[in-house]
Queue: 4 jobs
Job 1
Amino acid sequence: MTQAVKIIMVEDDHGHAKLIEKNIRRANINNEIKHFDEGGAALDYLFSPEILANGPLLILLDLNLPDMSGTDILERVKGDDRLKRAPVVVLTTTDDKVEIQRCYDLGCNVYITKPVDYESFAGAIRQLGLFLSVMQAPEIE
Amino acid sequence: MLRAMTPRSSQNWSRFSDFVRTPSLVRSITALLTLAFFLLLTVNVASFVMIQRTATINDSIENAQRMRRASRTVLIAMLDAETAQRGFLLTGRTDFLQPFEEARGEIAPALRLLDAGAAADPSLRPYVTRIHALADAKFGEMDKTLNLTRAGRIGQSIQLVRSGQGKRYMDELRGTITAFDTLKSTRIAERTRTSERLGVLTVAMNAIAGLLVLVLAILSAWVVRRYVAEIQRAREELDALNAGLEDTVRDRTAALTRANDEIQRFAYIVSHDLRAPLVNVMGYTSELEQAGKVIDKAIAEAETHRPVAPDVVMAVREDMPEAIGFIRASTEKMDRLINAILKLSREGRRNPLPETLDMTAMAQNIADSVHHQTEASGARILVEDLPPIESDRISMEQILGNLIDNAVKYLDAGRPGEIIVSGEEVAGGWVVYRVADNGRGIAPRDHERIFELFRRSGKQDRAGEGLGLAFVRNSVRRIGGTIDVESELGKGSTFLLKFPKRLILSEPGGVL
């Protein structure tokens, strides 16, 4: 049986987190969203036995975190044999080419720049929701 | 003329005295060589004089010898003549008289020679006069006896001889000649000694001069050697200093690069961190707007049943949208400013890539790209022949593009716009470009301000954030150039750009 994909959101800005969640919901995505506002807690959760036991994952990742860089989390996730299949969507304010390239090099699946303009932001999230609705997240064994 | 010459000669003199006072290799060598030259010249002249003098002395010695011989000849010839006289008196044979005549013939030139010598040297005159007189007297006595004998009065003749007159003449002559001879030989010995002394002196002088020249040569060699050693030492010191300087420059450049990187990084982080809250401001403003619309809809529905308080309607339909509009406009502006800072910091992180640029073509392209604007306002852009440059293409395009855009943007509506792009190479490996317009101009107090971020000058009737010239100055500096503005309000502005002809990067990616 296929389990519902769990969305793990690592975002230190609660406003952003709420906006992202709202827009995801508006796109009719009702998957469970687990929010972490710092990298350490997110990593602890990702590498806990609980998550390994509980089905497929999708990770929404902000790069500017207070305790570490999002790329560190990306590197850990993509370096792990079991977690590396989980799709990672980087959603951040940074639109620096070098940074984007680095994320793709580390194995990020989608890179979205948070637009300041709300309409674009909402549009981007809705597209992400669309993307999530058709995406098949692989099982984590 | 005199006034013109006096300073020059005094200048020459002061230059010369400077040269003399200042210790230097050239001065030392010149002094040594001059000394050696004068020494050699002196020795030469002295040797010449000595040789002349020696020759004169030798001549006089020879002359004295000749006179000595002449005096002896007189004595010997006189003895011969006496012997012949005695023989004739004894035998009466005339053939005995032949040596007598021969002797007379010999005496005459000898006496002439002595006379000549006495004429040259008055100290000899008494001797020569005496010899002359005695010889004459002796011949007179002998002729007398011979004549008596020929006349047959032989007895009278012998009587005359017997009187001893002739013998006295002869003895006196011998004595005089011996005295003369002694005097002469003394003088010859003296002169010979003088000649020898002169010879020794000449040799000694030559030897001493040679020695001195040798000493001077050694001195010169020593001076040169010392100088070369000094140069060598100075060069080594210079090399060491240069090496130190290079290290210092490298350290300073590295420090500056670090500082610059830090500033760029700082601007980057700050602008990112400023953007994150902005996303929220924008996002929740939109949420508020959405909520407002919901309330608006509810009020509209309520209005169909009962009247709603006008201040509520006012708050929802006018105040809220107005507030949201201001928040949104301000946030958008802030976003543009942050993006500008980001762009600036990103420019700073890009590495310039020097290549040879055809600046005339580049400027013409930029002019063509704003053609529709200039045509609309009746303005024209004149691109003169620009010298090529070896620099970063993107930076150069941004700089020229911004300046030409600005020139077009701030033309004076009151007169047809004219923008001239010109340039030339200047001494010292620099290239200067000028973008000149006859636009509205910039007040002097704003000449520095216009290059600052977010600062603008004059009437604020054109769109813009005050970024262009800040970018331009940043780019100009990054490729090692400078930018200045010359402008008069109401007349026009000229932007002066100065770049190194060849952009040389101190290290990959860094021009500071």
Job 2
Amino acid sequence: MLEGIMIGLEAAFSVQNILMVVFGCLIGTFIGMLPGLGPMSIIAIMIPVAITLGDPAAALILLAGVYYGAIFGGSTSSILLNAPGVAGTVATSFDGYPMARKGQAGKALTIAAVSSFAGGTIGAILLMIFAPALSSVALLFHSAEYFALMVVGLSAIAAFAGTGQVGKALMMTLLGLILATVGEGALFSMPRFTMGMMDLQSGISFITLAMAMFALPEALFLVLNPARGASNAEGGSNKITNLRFSRAEGRAMMPVIGRQSIQGFFIGVLPGAGATIASFLGYAVERNLAKGEEQAEFGKGSIKGLAAPETANNAACTGSFVPLLTLGIPGSGTTAILLGALIALNVTPGPRLMTDTPEIFWAVIISMFIGNLVLLVLNLPLIPYIAKILSIPRNYLIPFILFFTLMGAYIGQNNATELLILVGFGVVATILRFADYPLAPLLIGFILGTMLEDNFARSMQLYQGLGFILERPMTLGLLVLAMVLVLLPSFRARRARKRAEGVADGD
Amino acid sequence: MALDRWIALIFVLFCCVYGYAAFFTMDQLLPPFMQRNPVWPSTFPKVLAVLGVIVGLVVLLGLEKTDDSAASPSATEINYRRLHEYKLGQALMLLALMVLYALMLRPAGFLISTTVFLTAGSAILGERKFHVMIPVAVFATGFVWYLVQEVLGIFLRPFPFFMGM
């Protein structure tokens, strides 16, 4: 491990890569602050840039920097405007915005930055410990286990979608898998479902799909409903003056940060959970743990209430890299996009990543430390200036968002038909969002689709049929787990309903 | 029927078409040597089509109980039942503008089509200060073109087709 860290330090501390971290964090903060552009959209827009870099380590470092920056930027707009740019920072606005209204915007931002830093750093340390361990276990996996593992991942993403959403999430996952079968796969070298269209021969481009699923609907929502993303505040306090917090407040935050870094990290590791759930859960846990007056403070500008979701969401972001780097299975929309970028750069993340290309693996982890430091040291003092971007009129902003979305799809393919596909998918995605269908499962399904089929076919060929399910106990176990994950939520809902009915009868 | 159920219905129909293609149109094209493989190109799509129909029906028939107690969405949340209150016209015009941009990008060149796109986009949104918007659009277009062409090294045809490049 020490050797790996040295390799990582060497790679991450090259001038190019440090520039990438700084640049990525700045861009991420900048765009993440804009209402309606989440980390997924920003990363999707940055992918063509990252791919042209050519160096996978630099590309991943850049994108990871953008990811952190976007989360940090999202917290800033949550605190200043009560307009979270990212779902993961909604919980931040519960206490961050009341603090800003009390004239403590500067202090709130500092607390957010310090807790993010702590969450991210502790998360990165945990990642250093757990990723290599998981990698060595994963090396024992065969294609049958991989197939089963991907099924578990996809089921978990659906299972964590929330009450009444499991079916919809599964539907979107399947749609993603179906879209992945379009085109000439590497497996059979025969075109499938192209309907005779040349442009579909190479399949649907994942950048186009990512843009269409996230960036375009968000931009359209901003057009449709101007109230969205606008400042909810009457007058909102945009003045950022005193950035300091007192020592006593620091001491009060410490245990919160400690608990939430660890909790957030492990929630982040779970597929489908991620920053949003981590931040809400972190907030709820800390509110329950707080006593008396402190608990009453929650929602009115509590320091603990701000530190908890901020720590948890950053730790969860780091945690979500564990399944990506060790298994090559993304657990969230954002890591799915990162996986797509890596595949485009001819790197296949998975357990072999650590042994085959240690410089990539370790450089990414080391760059997480640098990224967190950059956010704290560089971005925090710049926040009063970066926050000016929030005052750009939407009439100027929206055309630019649309333009960057189009450019992202165009640069990758150099094909104007791609833009039409983008608009078409974008409209479909907007309708799906209107009907409350989650879109991240679609993208994850799309990205995993090829690998899922590949591993499925390989195990079928190896065992001349479906025998691998019964002959490999781990595969069977994982598939059973996937079943349980999908069926459990509806079983529990039914039991709860039965119990509720029972009570009513008793009366 | 709520919008999400309509979508589920469309999805089920889509899966039927997809399944039809997988079950009945793909296997004839298979070369004989591949027919001895346990996996055919159509195997995975067949599984997906069947699963898709099942899951689609679950959503369509509302077998999974939804949480009705969820609070009514806030003003900033997006909700199709309030579509008439939204600026639908602007959104549709922007979509049309994007399609137009896609069609014009090659023939008119990057510089002209992008400047027009940015200016027209903000005009659709109600901007009337053209003395600000046009210079901003021209500058931004030039800047992005320089970045993409010179820094990233991706060719973008800058001028209209009749100017040779």
Job 3
Amino acid sequence: MASLILMPALSPTMTEGTLARWVKTAGETVSAGDVIAEIETDKATMEVEAVDEGVIGKTLVAEGTQNIAVNTPIAVLLAEGEDASAADTVTRSADPAAGASVAIETPADPGIVEAPEVAQAENDRDWGETSEITVRQALRDAMAAELRRDEDVFLIGEEVAQYQGAYKVSQGLLDEFGEKRVIDTPITEHGFTGMAVGAALTGLKPIVEFMTMNFSLQAVDHIINSAAKTLYMSGGQMGCPIVFRGPNGAAARVGAQHSQCFASWFAHIPGLKVVAPWSSADAKGLLRAAIRDPNPVIVLENEILYGQKFPCPVDEDFILPIGRAKIEREGTDVTLVAFSIMVGVALEAAALLAEEGISAEVINLRSIRPLDTETIVRSVKKTNRIVSVEEGWPVAGIGAEICTVAVEQAFDWLDAPPARVCGLDLPMPYAANLEKLALPKPEWVVDAVRKQLRD
Amino acid sequence: MDETPSASGRSNGPALSPETMKRAYRDMLLVRRFEEKAGQLYGMGLIGGFCHLYIGQEAVVVGIGLNMKQGDKSITSYRDHGQMLVAGMTPRGVMAELTGRSGGYSRGKGGSMHMFSREKEFYGGHGIVGAQVALGTGLAFANKYRGTDEVSIVYFGEGASAQGQVYESFNLAALHKLPCIYVIENNRYGMGTSIERASASKDLSRNGEPWGIASRKVDGMDIFAVHEAAQEAVEYCRAGKGPFLLEMETYRYRGHSMSDPAKYRQRSEVEEMRRTRDPIDTLKAEMLRSGIEESVFKDIETDVKAIVADAAEFAQTSPEPDHSELWTDILVEA
């Protein structure tokens, strides 16, 4: 049956074009792939190829015709053995586009679609007996426990095996689990991260250690484009159960390229979870949860905290839910929200404020994404003031998000504008005195609270 | 495996049985007709965004596919429709993904460049040039970790061969002796930039040499040559000897994407390739020489046309995804 050849769209934005030249004319035989015409689009002159074989019955548009809308018939193609007269009788019904008239619903205003509620797990279970261990031990114990529990879990990174970890976090793991499961890599973040993500897409559960999170930038394409998005792009077929972990934020005197917080970077990405432990219990419980999680999870550790001791439950099953904050200190006058090493700064600030008779509540976020907005909002409704404390830069930082949550969800309860305490908005200097000036300290938090109470 | 005494023999590769030749012809024709139809639907505005057609390169994916077995994994860039069809994904599901409908492999959420099948071990469909090379190395890592003899086929263009992560991957694959077949589909142009202007390395098949990666340069327009090289590479990888690199010298007839005016090459160059080296015509000529009847081709053509027409119909009538799909598949429920 004769069919119509339509004006094609040749770019995502083309709506009309000019028929510059007919390459084939009536009576000529064409096969699939032959160029039949040249068309000028909004961007360039392009060739139009025949999709089917047949004989051009007649052309419907003259050379040089401008502003031909996409899908306008431009020629009639006769099937094998058909007479040229069939070109006159061909109707729109022969048009392959006719079958395409499925209503494509585009609501004029799709409105704001609310994200479903994140299920909140039990956070406050009493795990009983604790012992004092360093954050470093807690992280190692978490990995050892999960490596024992699941054969699909493996650790990969620079110096994780024979060297026992650049910061000794993986000490002893090679001895216990062998080189199949504790794998040293060359200095090749882009490559080994991509390789680990590929393995995770098949269902293995890699723990990727970045010697520091600064080096994750070499691999950031795989974290964002490969790990975080594949589940969605595959319509739910292909998840990526992987952990990316390593020390984040400023250490001491290591300068601009090794001193920065990535919480805001990764928290921005749908498809990722981001946790930032402070204490040993946080570290152990959150890392175990991250390894078991079927999604990509970023674990932002802190080098200065590695050597600090905290009580940690000894229960073999100890684990924490991702997505729940912890109130480290209760108070009534102001809410201090912090994560990672800044939880300690906030607690020190709370102690200083107590000396002035100001009662500060300190929230340890534990999880940056998903963010436990419920705990933040409940606290603000009680204290009527909120100050966020983070080591990272202020612009588009986590503090900006926290303050927005308070304004959006507890505006009527606020007695003062929310305030942010952040690292200074500059690359980290090397000099000891300058570095000290750049990082938040308890006094900055105290000042912010005083200002809120004064205004 | 396909060698029988009565099979056709050629200097360019091993013999293939009549049945294998028919299968190869049918698969190549399916890819070609599918892509022509995709181009047409794009022209009608039914496929949006970017759409990169595989026309001209069919022998590469089909010849390699002849050597794959259940469990072998494959991964490629965004010029991915051919790989998906050869992996056994349905033309309906692929075409419906191109039109962004609920019947598509990603239920309309991936599009031409982002399509996957867990069942068929096809790992995408990646929009970032070169990313699939490191990911594909990870597929091979998983094969080895699990102790199987399955291989991972990693397709990338000569354009991607300029990416640093390709060589990071070569190093890792060679260090760990991963069962990974790297297939460079050298179609001469990375978008509009010819290989001569993009690569100081003039022989890409040697790009794995510093890592001791075994390699072959192959006439990617000739299914017999592709089949023979793939057979060697697959056997090598299954035997645990490490990665293998195949440079397929091929050619794409269409532009880089649908919106490519192709001003960087002469029309005569394309026509010359189509006329003298077309992989489907070449195979057909060989099949005719070996005594296969003309009617066989007619039957295959009719069959393929029906499959493609059915896929196109399905892709146009499958409903758009429900609005609730917006919020599904962002995270796996823990």
Job 4
Amino acid sequence: MGHLRVAMDIGGTFTDLVAFDERDGSYVTRKVSTTPADLTEGVLEGLDQLLDSADDISFIVHGTTQGLNAFLQRRGERVLLLATRGARDVYHIARGARHELYDLHYRKPQPLVRRRDTIAITGRLDYRGEEVEPLSEAELRAAAGQARDEGIKAFAVAFLFSYLNPVHELEAERIILEEFPEASVSLSHRAAREWREYERTSSTVLNAYIAPVVERYLDRLQRSMTERGLTVPLHVMQSSGGILTAQTAREQPIQTLLSGPAGGAMGGAAVAEILSRPNLLCVDMGGTSFDMSLIVDGQPDTVQETELEGLPLLMPIVKIHTIGAGGGSLAYLEAGGLRVGPESAGAQPGPACYRRGGTQPTVTDANLVLGRIDPAFFLGGAMQLDVEAAHAAVASLAAKLGMEPLELAEGILDVVNAKMAQAIRTITVEQGIAPADFAIVAFGGAGAMHAAFLAEELEIPEVIVPVFPGSFSAWGMLRTKLRHDFTTPYYKAATEADRAEMKRLLDELADEGRRALRSEGVAEDKVEVTSLVDMRYVAQEFSLPVPLDSSELDDPNFAAIVAERFHQAYDARYGHANPSAPVEFVSVRATTYGDLGRAEAKRLNGAQPDSHDASSRKVIFARAEHEAAVAVRDSLAPGASLAGPAIVEEPTATTVVPPGWVATVDEHGFLVLRNQKDRR
Amino acid sequence: MTVTHDPASTQVDPITTEIIRNAFLSAAEEMNATLIRSAYNAIIYEAKDCSVALLDENKRALGQSAGLPIFLGNLEICIQLTEDAFGAEVWAPGDVWIMNDSYMTGTHLGDVTIFAPIYYGEELVGFSASRAHWLDIGAKDLPAPTDSTEIYQEGIRLGPTKVMEGWKLRDDIVDILQRNSRFPYTLVGDLHAQIAVARTGERRLSAIIDRYGLETMRQARDEIFAQSEALDRAAVAAIADGVYEAEGSLDNDGVTDDEFWVRMKITVDGDRMLVDLSESSGPARGAINCGEAQAISACRVAFKRLVNPDRPVTGGTFVPLDVKVRKGSLLAAEEPAACQWYFSPLGLLIDLFAKALAPVMPEVVAAAHHGDSMVNYITGLRDRNGNLFVNVDCLVGGWGGWQGSDGESCLINNVNGSINDFPIEIVESRYPLRVREYAVRTDSAGAGKWRGGCGTIREFEIESEDVWISLWYERSKTPAWGLFGGESGKPPVVEINPGSADVRQMLKVNRLPLKSGDIVRCQSGGGGGYGDARERDHDLVALDIEEGFITLDQARASYGYEPS
């Protein structure tokens, strides 16, 4: 009988594994190199390091970049796009928007289908979903034949108004498969059952483009795992923060696109629950980028729409904001002034201290020069950093600015911290949120090195560094549930809504979710359903999702109740509402969750303050040299406390505790940093 | 190229300067986020027809964020003109000003500018300002007339007016505004959104001064301006000295058949550039007149596209640029000239700027794009729910090619910024319209070694009685031109009931009645080509035929192509 719950997060450089032992509540982690040519190799290598036999596994989930890589490298499947005659070019016109105002050389995002592979098919529905022109079977058979002759196996079918009535798309699928049984067909009403034909088409094309790639990968991984004795189903993380069985993921591969970052946000939600801190700002700083996500009222901030390299994607997704600031951000001169980022040294040549040819100073070089990184303990000692090279790079720029090298090194960090804090402030203003009401959760290699400084800029008093900050996404995946999202249009003025009809639609969606969960082996009493209705003011294009309880549909005042809720949500988001204006429904959504049990670490005890292995080294803060305590994270027991200046090191991350801050280890093993400076 | 300047005059360290520089930019972003978040009408929060700026006490930009390209650096002037009118003693804490007069702000009356002085203690330290397009300020036709001949037909006109005193709203002024709008509720919402922008700017600038001190902030500011100026000067110095000219004409002014010319003479002398527009046409009877402030803004946009386009705008940007206009002309309108379509000559001006400098900046410039505004206003008494409706649709078109690349196809025009087209499914669900075709316009791109982008076709059928259409299409007489031997793109064409006995062609019209079953077919122009078409790579021509951007006939005629 298996006893290990295992999560694997396949990132661009490393594959992280975290295993939770249900017998004693302990965790084990592994980090192995990602194997881009065949991701399963890295995964299996990591698993071999982690466990003796796959039948020890009681539950397994993984986040994969397979689909994302295929997209980013444009190595997906050639797709034939079938569109409504008259609207064939919708995908290539791409709504005509230009996102760089002063760029004379602007180009739209590179489409995934060539125009010649876009075929117009006769057949038209009107705005009520009623047929005004029948579907041309002959044209479909010709298109399928053409695809077969040219060796195109992936079809995207996106017809106008299919979100109201899928009859033509379903008919198209039947005919294509008759002509060409090996074809992989993506239908727009399944990929994204929402209006706006360009966005729906784009989602469908992306699904078709990566489907065969993801399918082959999942087949390969499933086969290898079964050979190793795995007896439980393989699960895949979704961009929404829920998980799917591998079987379901094959049918909706776009849902897996951004599964890694979603794991981080779910880790944030888990921290919120464990600490009863409902509002968190999760920051992940890596080599080239700084990613931020929000946990509001205990839930990850989720949106129904996103863009990948400018191509829109309609699906529920955890909102990740990316800012061009990371360890590799370059410091340089422009017109006699200092600039830091967004240009990055990346991994090649990388920071000067990597000794791969980089000579310009980076954020990592500045941290190293200031003593905040131990050159012998970077990536747990896997990489030796060259302090002299970092110093030379910083000194060379400092000379041009007429500054002392150490002064510049700290200045580089001040600039990058200020930029990150300002970006966070702008994002939160857009959302109608005050950052000071939040605590920061810091993870990723460099997140905890900068978090306290960001917190000071944003007047946030507390920073939480969770356990395994370097494998936080994988840790987060162990805390999620199975999830299925279904949506259907319901376009009506709120005052004219038919409650019975809405209830029927929501029940159907929930049943669809229940069926999916049942097929994945979830017992009925482990199912939870939440409902949303998308609402907006009449004549607006964009809507806000408003939660509702389906029992509220029995209330004759239903329309007024949800309208009030909508006005409140609108006010929170936009800073004003218009209670006297008419509102309308756009679509209804049901999300079903299946609880598969979760990893619950037992509380740590045996608090023995100050029993940790402590050494010290010289670190610069506020232009002065301090003797900072240096502790190894593993040696810090619950209750242990370190007053800044201090550094806490672990193989995958470094936490900097500045002067005036105190770090305490709580009963869950989290490192909690508090600002103890005089506050008003 | 290393750009530098003498930093001897500054006492602030480079780190503080850089943090303050980012803080100014971030303050402008936050002001913009405040506006988008709290505006009531979609022209602001969707079409981004707005701009914000944080200015210092000398009305120079600390930070700015523009939603529309032609709103670049056009807010300073409003504050200067207010001071010119009422004296430098006019400012007081808590006062908020409103104005929209076209001859002062430069734009049409629908664009409302709101600004407030910022005090730190007793001292005037700056201004926060925003401009945004309101839904309706009482023009004779909704959403805007295409045939106005005097400004009085275009809405209520405000010189600098206090809308708040001591942070208290002046109810009498708000009442006047509301009485002159068909949408008074939305109007007040947008007014409050812009007041919120003013307060955000004040709060952010005060926070910067709290933290660094007024003296340090000002020294950093001077250094930041000096850096921007040095960058722009170096870029201008790199352009060969000389006098460069270009001209082009608008089709007409919407009410007469006269041509109107934008004529530009650019003198580059060392690190300075003078743009002389004074030979341009005199005032038009129709609504294409433009206030001087916007003519200057358009020159700044044209400059920015070629000079440091990715660098933020500060009070040091544009210092090397001077603009000369002739008072009372098309580009420096005076009472009572109509200004609703003030931006049509500006779209042309911006393209002409690149044409003039093409000989000395061949690797940077692009051929002309399809122009503006290519707009259809369809109004009617009954939408799908039986209510009065206004549908504004802007047809996207082709952009010009440049050295190393074809121009983009089906892209929104320059003056309309980043606006999206209207999805067919939304149009048909709301309005009594059926979109019969939305397609790339084959053979519309200007041929060239690097061809222009293609125009677009949008054809729709009217499904109700009591519907009217207004049109504003341009550049049939000066279609998007090519550069260095590249050909022009095809001009726009609009037909009512094409292929029928009563087919009619027109490019501008005001409230033409339509009936159920009428068909409107709109075709936007293509972009100009760059370089001799005969030098185009044979494989690229073959690919264009395969992709359907050009036909074999055009390939033969323009490119001398024969299939291999």
